[in-house]
Amino acid sequence: MKADNDYEVYVTTIVEKYSDMIMRIAFTYLKQHSDAQDVCQDVFVKFFKHAKIFEDAEHEKAWIIRITINTCKDILRSFWKKRFTPVEQVIQPITDPQDHEIVSMVLELPKKYRIVMYLY
Fold first, then answer.
1. What are the tens digits of pLDDT across the range 71-116?
2. Which helix (H) or strand (E) holds 67?
3. 57 and 18 belong to one structural domain
C-alpha cells in the first residue's frame, strides 16, 4: 500500500514539474491548444511506460524535451496526411459548364501541379 502511495506522489511530482514546459513546447510547434494537450498526455504516457532511471534531473528534462519535440513532429507529419483531401473526394455539384471544364483540366494535371492548385 505504501509503494502505491509513493508512486502516486512520484507521478504527481513529475506532472507538476514538467507539464507547463511540455505544453509550451507543444503549443509552439502545433499552434493548437487541444493538440498541445494531446502531446502532453502522450509524453507522460511514454515517460511512465519506459520508466528510465536518469543520472540527474537535467538528463530527465532533456529526455522529456526530446520526446515532446519528436511527438510534435510526428503529429505534424500525420496532419498533412489526414487533412489533405483530394478534389476528387469533395462532392460539390458543378452546374456551370465552364467550371466543369476547368475542374476536369485541373484533375488531369500531374499530382505536383494539382497540389499547387488545391492550395491556391
1. 999 999 886 656 555 555 555 666 777 877 887 887 788 877 777 7
2. helix 57-83
3. yes
H or E element, residue 53: none
Chain center to CA of 102: 35
Task: Give the cell for residue 99.
Answer: 467550371
Are residue 74 and residue 108 in the same domain, yes or no? no
Q: Which helix (H) or strand (E) holds 48?
A: helix 33-50
Question: What is the number of domains present in the chain?
Answer: 2
| pLDDT value at residue 25 | 94
- Is the separation of the CB atoms in 39 and 71 below 8 Å? yes
**Coil, strand or helix at 105:** helix
**Which tens digit of pLDDT belongs to each residue from 9-45?**
888 998 999 999 999 999 999 988 999 999 999 999 9
Q: How far apart are CA 81 and CA 22, in angstroms?
A: 25
pTM value > 0.70: no
Q: Of 72, 83, 57, 62, give the one whose Cα is nearest residue 25.
A: 72
> Position 73: which residue type?
K
